[in-house]
Write a structure and sequence with these properties.
Pfam families: Cpn10 (PF00166). By secondary structure, the chain is mainly beta. The chain has a single domain, classed as 10 Kd Chaperonin, Protein Cpn10, Chain O (Roll), CATH 2.30.33.40. The chain is built from 1 helix and 6 strands, in the order βαβββββ. It has a 6-stranded antiparallel sheet, with no helix packed on it. β4 (75-79) and β5 form a beta hairpin.
């Protein structure tokens, strides 16, 4: 029996990934090179699990979505030998679409 990690309420479990695009290309927003260095290559992630939401607000994100992550938010989690980050949905900056 495999164990699963299921976020509660408005929390989102994210695994950091590296995209093939530079941060300045995401959404057409220009990010100076000095600022791009501060975000590192891991400013993006893939949604692994999503909570049910809170009160009358359902979760906006779904499993498999690619997202833009903030620098100083989220909680690092190690689970079953993998590294993840847990965020509140409103901490995630944007959803990345192709």
């Amino acid at each position: 029996m495999s164990r699963r990690l299921i976020p509660l309420f408005d929390r989102v479990l994210v695994k950091r990934i590296k995209l093939d695009v530079k941060p300045a290309q995401i959404g057409g927003v220009f990010i100076p090179e000095s600022a791009a260095k501060n975000t590192g290559d891991n400013a993006t992630g893939e949604v692994i699990a999503v909570g049910d939401g809170i009160e009358d607000k359902k979760a906006t994100l779904k499993i498999g979505d690619k997202v833009l992550l903030p620098n100083y938010a989220g909680a690092p989690i190690k689970f079953s030998g993998e590294e993840y980050d847990m965020y509140r949905e409103d901490e995630i900056l944007a959803k990345i679409e192709n």
